[in-house]
Amino acid sequence: MAEEVELSNKQKKEIAKWFFLNAPAGEIQYVAKDLKAVLNDDEVYDEAASESFPVYNKSHMICLQMPARSGDVLVTPFGELDENEYLDPRTAQVAIVDHVKQACTEVRPASDEELPSPYTEEFRSALDSEIVKYVGEAYPKGVCSVYCTKGKDAEGPGFDFELVVVICAARLSPQNFCNGSWRSIWTIEFQDEAQILELKGKLQVGAHYFEEGNVQLDAKHECRDTTLFQSPDDCAISIAHIIRHHETEYLSSLEASYSNLPDNTFKDLRRKLPVTRTLFPWHNTSQFSLTREISKELGIGK
Questions:
Q1: Rounded CA gap, 24 and 30, in Å?
Q2: Do the Cβ atoms of 66 and 104 come closer than 8 Å?
Q3: Phi and psi (nearest 5°) for 200?
């Protein structure tokens, strides 16, 4: 019989952190509840949670409501000012966040140093308006934000700067054993001297189905494009059009890819069912297309 080895507190903490950080979208609080019971050690649990929740919240770009319904803030690395302070560029406010409780505890006005210059803000706010329109059409439950990550002090033509567009959509339905999420990050480099804008996009779809099983989907995609450097309004329209094109194209490719699963991946998994002794009808599983269900849950493409 193998001898049982007692884990050190450090080992327990690292294992707990792994479970925290690998929790599916919207499920970290459920994981936390179970881990607290399993660990039965508040000190180890608190250390693991305090180190894991900030990382998880930023990687999943969770959205929190600010006090007095003064707006929503996305918890992202692009808006992070301090360990628990996050800028909301749209309302020019800074939210103070309790990561473990996943709540915004208070809010303060952003200082001039924390905001972009009037020149950069003109481009940022124009792009924000167009992205809000796009997200409202494509992701009914989506949220978005546009950050200035470089060139905040640009004073006029001739300066280069960088904006980042973040789009998130989540549909959490644990009572139906299904959670889904969409996250996309678009980095736009404004190169004034070259009179071009370069866009780099990172797109990610995630889903978790866990009724009598545990099926997870995590698909990622990267793309890039360019357009002309124009007036703030024209730049915003061009960028939003490019983002719409790439995201629609990616979702369509996912739909096509997963609709073919019954003919390839599942083909080698055909086994006789234990009771009826008949083969499972994988050819009919297209009706359970993961991406179709994700799109339906998130309201994508409507």
A1: 10
A2: yes
A3: -125, 120
